[in-house]
Design brief:
Helices cover about 30% and strands about 25% of the residues. With about 350 residues, the chain is an alpha/beta fold. The strands form three sheets. Strands 16-13-12-11-7-10-9-8-17 form a nine-stranded mixed sheet. The model has no long low-confidence stretch (mean pLDDT about 95). The structure holds nicotinamide-adenine-dinucleotide.
Length: about 350
């Protein structure tokens, strides 16, 4: 029989409430109702804002009066930390020291030294400490990973992963460096984690540049180029002043190209069927002639739908519970989180010095 787990949320803001809805059976991204996660109950929460304490009351949660009170409750098995980034470290260490298992929102913290302190605390407490790298369950990512793993485009030499918006940085702590604001720590940590999960190679070189269109203090966008050991170049870009989005994924292999346009998984794969007809009739452009850029004719290529991979984000919590029970190995491993953290540090260094940084 499975054990029943109680989870308490520290920081019941936007994301804390997302977890509450996920666990208790809310709406998923396309507004379909999903079933609650079995064997897991959200028992209470603590937030420094009275308005969120009231929200907790209205939604049947125990609103603990302090972090101490929450940590002292023996019925709490798992603490979820969903506060702004700068306070993760203190809350996670205190929860581990209180003998709780901990789920921490991303970015786990602001530096690799701080993360090491948190890992040390988890080892000492012998408790599960896991970071919510939920975008490993993104279907667009898993679909591109399948294309890569199954060599569907031949040797892949370039992957472009972009996330574009046009609203600047939301008007709260995300704009402030002291709270761990900026897009590298916000979206970067997700798409960098995806890159390192996809390509099983060392990252040799890192080059980064930041944008400051709407915010001087933190990066409101970035472009990062990672060069892996095989020479594969992986471009990552986050923009918050992009009124026209580029595709979410653009993948180039020797035998074809794949595009995933958006989170709706629209897109396609175009692959070569006949290399012999490589020579093209030149085309005329406004002020010249080109043979190189003449579009391919249909008799040499084939278009396929994307090989969509489905996933269920509730598996994150199922894995956390099974790991606590000693039945499974944790999926989001701390050495992987540390590698991403160090990569973000290399990105900050590259953006500051305008130099390519050697990584691994
Ligand atoms: P938010 O501002 O909506 O919520 C944060 C909440 O924490 C607020 O209600 C605030 O009052 C509370 N808080 C602040 N300091 C606290 C403290 N010391 N103790 C208790 N409560 C405290 O922010 P958010 O968008 O929900 O982001 C929270 C965390 O979740 C961040 O780390 C963010 O990066 C992460 N996040 C993750 C995802 C994801 O997809 N994994 C998405 C959004 C946000």
């Amino acid at each position: 029989m499975n054990k029943e787990f109680n989870l308490a949320i520290v920081g019941l803001g936007g994301m804390g409430n997302w977890h509450r809805e996920l666990i208790t059976g809310g709406a998923n991204w396309n507004n379909d109702k999903i079933d609650p996660i079995e064997h897991l109950t959200v028992c209470g929460s603590y937030d420094i804002r009275e308005e969120r304490q009231q929200f907790a009351r209205e939604h049947g949660l125990t609103p603990y009066n302090s972090l101490e009170e929450l940590l002292a409750d023996p019925k709490v098995d798992i603490v979820l930390c969903a506060t702004p980034n700068d306070v993760h470290k203190e809350i996670v260490i205190r929860a581990l020291e209180a003998g709780k298992n901990v789920v921490c929102e991303k970015p786990v913290t602001l530096s690799s030294n701080d993360l090491q302190d948190m890992i040390d605390a988890a080892e000492k407490a012998k408790k599960v400490f896991v970071v919510h790298q939920n975008r490993r369950w993104d279907e667009d990512f898993l679909t591109v990973k399948k294309i890569y793993d199954e060599h569907m485009l031949g040797d892949i030499f370039r992957i472009e992963s972009r996330v574009h918006g046009s609203r600047g940085i939301p008007g709260d702590w995300r704009q402030e460096p002291e709270h761990g604001g900026g897009m590298v720590l916000d979206w970067g940590v997700h798409i960098l984690d995806q890159a390192l999960m996809m390509i099983p190679e060392k990252v040799k070189k890192v080059y980064a540049s930041f944008t400051h269109v709407t915010n001087e203090l933190v990066d409101d966008g970035f472009t990062v180029e990672l060069t892996f050991e095989s020479g594969l170049v992986y471009l990552l870009e986050v923009g918050t002043s992009n009124f026209i989005n580029l595709p979410r994924w653009y993948v180039l292999g020797q035998n074809g190209t794949a595009v995933v346009k958006d989170w709706d998984l629209s897109g396609e794969i175009v692959r070569i069927t006949d290399w012999s007809k490589n020579d093209a009739v030149p085309i005329r452009t406004a002020a010249g002639l080109t043979k190189t850029m003449a579009p391919r004719t249909e008799d040499t290529i084939h278009t396929d739908p994307l090989p969509i991979v489905h996933a269920d984000i509730r598996d994150f919590y199922k894995n956390v519970m099974a790991t606590i029970e000693g039945k499974e190995e944790i999926i989001v491993k701390l050495p992987q989180v540390m590698r991403v953290m160090k990569l973000m540090e290399a990105i900050f260094e590259s953006a500051k010095t305008h130099q390519v940084v050697d990584f691994e």
